[in-house]
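PROTEIN DESIGN WORKSHEET
SECTION A - STRUCTURE
LENGTH: 70
TOKENS:
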């Protein structure tokens, strides 16, 4: 069991990488997401090699554009 964005989650696979977790969770544009494990940012180039461990807290941080022009 891990926590993803504050909610308990049971992965489908043991020894899952961040990239696999993003796919499992249905994230369509992983290049637009920053990921933290236990409060530490993971470099995007390490998504495929960083393994999530039991009780890790994972946060997906999505980039959003917007605002207004006055």
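SECTION B - SEQUENCE
RESIDUE ASSIGNMENT:
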């Amino acid at each position: 069991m891990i926590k993803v964005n504050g909610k308990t989650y049971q992965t489908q696979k043991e020894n899952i990488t961040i990239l696999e977790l993003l796919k499992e969770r249905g994230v369509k544009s992983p290049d637009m997401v920053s990921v933290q494990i236990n409060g530490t940012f993971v470099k995007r180039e390490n998504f495929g090699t960083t393994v999530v461990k039991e009780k890790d807290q994972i946060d997906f941080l999505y980039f959003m554009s917007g605002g207004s022009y006055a």
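SECTION C - NOTES
The chain has a mean pLDDT of 90.
Helices lie at 18-24.
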